[in-house]
Amino acid sequence: MRHPIFLTLCAAAIGLSACEESGEEQVERALQDINVVDESNLNDVMLTVGDPNEAVRYFANANANDPGRIDLQRGLAKSLVRAKRTNDAVTAWQTVVAHEEATDTDRVDLADAFVRANAWDDAAATLNTIPPTYETFKRYRLEAMVADSRQQWDKADSFYETAVGLTTRPATVYNNWGFSKLTRGEYAEAERMFTDALRFNSNMFTAKNNLVLARGAQRNYTIPVVPMTQVERAQLMHTMALAAIKQNDITIGKSLLNDAINTHPRYFEEAVRALEALENNAVN
């Protein structure tokens, strides 16, 4: 008569033990989830506001402690790009792309690293592994730059146009596109592209400087009407002066150098040296 009771008690004990184990497992899982969230937040911080070299050390240590995790491998690769350690970044992105969980986004980032390393053929080969159905701003911007490097102008124009349509902030694309036009000697088109770049980002000094070069190449030596600081105005006058001198418009170049020196709020060494060189050549 005792056996049924004994079995019932045993079953109850086993059930209680199972419940206790289940509860412990749930707590452990919850703690793991919290740790993952905390770690993810820290990873995001290191990828954005952290010092690039500090981020490299962080992700290098994290990879050493937990190898094989693609999120940590990506973090290291992105940090190396930010730290301008180009060759190391290429190696890191190759590791990411070799991972079984790698995506087309990772392959685009590898192509970007190759472009930064001036390895244009490798960048092209990497982009060719990505299906044409994967259409992103970064992919087409890189495709355009690779086409530029090969002087495939029609392809470059097509890719630049597609990239512009895939972003709400196309200033960098227009600047690159304008520089491509400048390289081809299409100065009026280049001027238009740089103007478009400044329409989307009026603070981009590179586009301002390139715009001056495009105008100077057309012998238009007036400074464009765009927002600029006093220092920027002096620097743009210096750029315009050099463009004039290159085309043997020496008098205009000297006048622009004098204007640049007088406009700059501090001592403008580069403009002073250029003006002295011109005057010495004139004397000699």
TrEMBL record:
Keyword terms of this UniProt record: TPR repeat
A Pfam entry, by short name: TPR_19
TPR repeats: 171-204
Keyword Transferase: no
SUPFAM superfamilies noted in UniProt: TPR-like (SSF48452)
PROSITE patterns reported in the protein's UniProt record: PROKAR_LIPOPROTEIN (PS51257), TPR (PS50005)
Protein's UniProt name: Flp pilus assembly protein TadD
